[in-house]
Design a protein that fits this description.
262 residues; alpha/beta; Rossmann fold; Dihydrodipicolinate Reductase, domain 2; 2 domains; 30% helix; GFO_IDH_MocA-like_dom; nucleotide binding
Length: 262
């Protein structure tokens, strides 16, 4: 039995969701919605579904919706579906500010509706593999850089890119952030395009995060240092390396016994 889905937003991410949904046996892409009729019509024709121009027109037609509109409109567009008890998958970030996000979460609790955010990096094979190791990070270094894609220009690089690493770091550290020191630089518009942040947690872990959407290449990497292991992850290549202390005790002992002249 398939479930009926609407994709709200016919931009870059909306097109990706529409393509995947149209290829799934478990789902039926019923419609795509965009306030730009030409964009909605073009994508609907490509994916053999109905085109709509107002999100609320899709509520009674579907069982769930994917919200892929600009960030500032996430909560406004998602709310009628959640009120109607229709689960939503919202592109990250969930909202433009925490208060709006809390309102939507509270509404979902009242209606018993699922609200999921598209933190896709959680499902990267390297992250899934890393979670199998009992690692308690002491220091994390993450950087995520890419050329400017002209999408998500309504928000800064923190909401656009760094949010992935913030999400993963919070998941790994399992502590409360006590201090944040950060600097951001806006180059192309009113929002920051480059940002560096240093997060200090109550359990002693420190994370240094860098994000830029003005690079000439794409790199997404993280290094994790702990007392038990060293982990390095390349999210683009889906490659990770774990060096565990327990499996290298002989080398560690050798290093401790080695004289400086050796």
């Amino acid at each position: 039995m398939s479930f009926r889905v609407a994709v709200i937003g016919a931009g870059r991410m909306g097109k990706l969701h529409a393509r995947v949904l149209s290829q799934m046996d478990q789902a039926e892409l019923v419609c795509v919605v965009d306030i730009n009729p030409a964009a909605a019509d073009a994508l609907a024709k490509q994916r053999s579904c109905k085109a709509l121009y107002q999100a609320t027109d899709a509520i009674d037609m579907v069982d769930a919706a994917v919200i892929a509109v600009p960030t500032v409109s996430h909560v406004q567009v998602a709310t009628p579906f959640v009120q109607a008890g229709k689960p939503v998958l919202i592109e990250k970030p969930i909202a433009n500010d925490p208060a709006e996000a809390e309102q939507l979460i509270k509404l979902a609790g009242k209606t018993g509706t699922g609200v999921q955010v598209g933190h896709t990096e959680r499902f990267n094979p390297t992250v899934l593999a890393m979670q199998k190791h009992a690692i308690k990070p002491k220091f994390i270094e993450a950087y995520r850089i890419s050329p400017f894609t002209f999408r998500s220009a309504d928000v800064g690089v923190v909401f656009d890119m760094m949010i992935h690493d913030i999400d993963l770091i919070l998941m790994l550290v399992r502590g409360r952030v006590e201090q944040v020191h950060a600097v951001g630089v806006n180059v192309l518009g009113q929002h920051e395009d480059i940002c560096n942040a240093r997060l200090a947690f109550d359990n002693g872990c420190v994370a240094n995060i860098t994000a830029s959407r003005l690079a000439i290449k794409t790199e997404r990497k993280m290094r994790i240092f702990s007392e038990e292991a060293y982990v390095t992850v390349d999210y683009v290549r889906k490659l990770g390396i774990v060096i565990e202390k327990s499996r290298n005790l002989d080398l560690i002992q050798m290093a401790r016994e080695m004289d400086i002249d050796d």
